[in-house]
Amino acid sequence: MYWGLSEIELIFDELRKRDYINWNTVSLVARANIMTIKEPQLAAALSGVGRSNAAMTNYIARITAMSDSMTNQGLLALPVAGGLENHSYNFGGLSEIQNTSMMDVAGACEMAVSKLYGRTVTGLGQTGEGDLQNYYDTVEQKRKRELRPQLNKLFPIVAMSTWGAISDDFDYKFPPVRSLTDKDRADLAKSNIDAIAVLFNAGLFSERT
């Protein structure tokens, strides 16, 4: 009776998961390059933290001064016994996770990825034609299963109100979901002409017909 779940509820969880994936990906990328400083006096500087905050304050001030002194060319002055190391991380599989989450959202929406996100499907031998055809078939099924029964009740009422009667040949049809390209139209016309020519040459109907 159309009092069930909202359409948004079907995709809300998938959208929330995709949101988590995006933000976690950003967080991982931000941590992909970490610089560490070897501080020989670190233990001594932190030894008095329990008794006073002065040691921690002095340590933080030193680290802040070192960070501020680093130039945009990566130059940093360090003590003789100190050292600077750079730790880089490569996160593999992030693109696959992103693509999987996109497909999950598209599946919940019952739409093709290229239709929902406006992106062409990439990959060897992949054109996205099958996904689009599945989407068009789904829309056509919903037209027949959900929309047509409602219109079959509504249109006769509109006809009686407008014309005062319902004609015997009253009918309606939905416009095509998919727009044909010029090549598709040409191929369709050629196939129709070839079929007619075969039947005519076989003598199944006259030239006048």
What can be said about this structure in brief?
By secondary structure, the chain is mostly helical. It is built from seven helices and two strands, in the order αβααβαααα. The radius of gyration is 34 Å and the shape is elongated.
Overall pLDDT, averaged?
80
Spell the H/E element sequence: HEHHEHHHH
Q: Fraction of residues in helices? A: 55-70%
Give the helix tally: 7
Largest sheet: 2 strands, antiparallel
Principal-axis shape equals elongated
Lateral strand order in the biggest sheet: 1-2
Number of strands: 2
Rounded radius of gyration (Å) = 34 Å
What ranges have pLDDT less than 50 throughout 5 or more consecutive residues? none
Strand content: 5-15%
In quaternary terms, these chains amount to single chain
N- and C-termini, Cα separation: 50 Å
The secondary structure category is mainly alpha
Based on the model shown, name its key terms:
mainly alpha, two-stranded antiparallel ribbon, 209 residues, 58% helix
Q: Can you walk through the features of this model?
A:
It is elongated, with a radius of gyration of 34 Å. A two-stranded antiparallel ribbon has the order 1-2. The protein has helices at residues 7-30, 42-46, 54-69, 94-109, 113-117, 129-163, 182-201, and strands spanning 33-38, 83-88. The protein is mainly α and 209 residues long.
